[in-house]
Amino acid sequence: MPVIFITGATSGFGAATARLFARNGWKVVATGRREERLAALRAEFAEGVVHTAQVDLMDRQSIVAAVAGLPADFRPIHCLFNNGGLALGTRPIPDVDLDDWNTMIDTNIKGLIHTTMEVLPLLRAAGRGASIVNMGSVAQRWAYPGGNVYGGTKAFVHQFSHNLRTDLAGADIRVTTLEPGLAKSEFTLVRTHGDEAANEALYEGVEPLLPEDIADIVWFLATRPAHVNIASLEVTPVMQVAGASRVVRKN
Fold this sequence. Notes:
This protein has about 250 residues and is an alpha/beta fold. The protein has helices at about 10-25, 35-45, 60-70, 100-125, 150-165, 185-190, 195-205, 210-220, and strands at about 5, 25-30, 50-55, 80, 130-135, 175-180, 230-235, 240, 245. Helix 3 runs parallel beside helix 4 and helix 4 (about 100-125) packs parallel to helix 5 (about 150-165).
């Protein structure tokens, strides 16, 4: 059975992707900070389908331990989905919280780098057709008020992915940046530090992308023929145009 390694698998895109791949015959390594959610996900499937590991992407040693502790039947890795990440804060510069900025940098950039470096030998072991899907955002290309460092971290993911693909040329490992627009998950709740009203207002009158939509795309990317590499893929709801800030709302 092929194996997918997913960061941020406790909610949103990561959880939906874990469920889709597990239902479709893959083994899943699901990682995240919330152990109770990981346990619930593991319990949904037969024993041996989902392996879980508690990982904080800001803690490099937890990533190292999770990869080192993988059982033999969850090696090698055929797809790495670097999904874990977050946005914090909505205020424009200079009215920002530098702790929020540093958390985004440590999670979205350093966490992705450290996970990639630890999993890469297992992707090489999988051979031709292995793939890395890095979660980006339309925010890497389209600026909007309050996007500041979050958009900067996703610009890093975009460019790092292209450079990683260049360095891995000839290694038979595909690399893709998946860059969604407006999507409904726990993303905005986290960004607003739990502001339910702000979360609901963002999606009012809009049919956003759903986690299941993104999971379908990750499945598509991971299951292309081995000679096919999709470098980057930007996806938005129909109601979102011209980048991150232009959304048409229906009454």
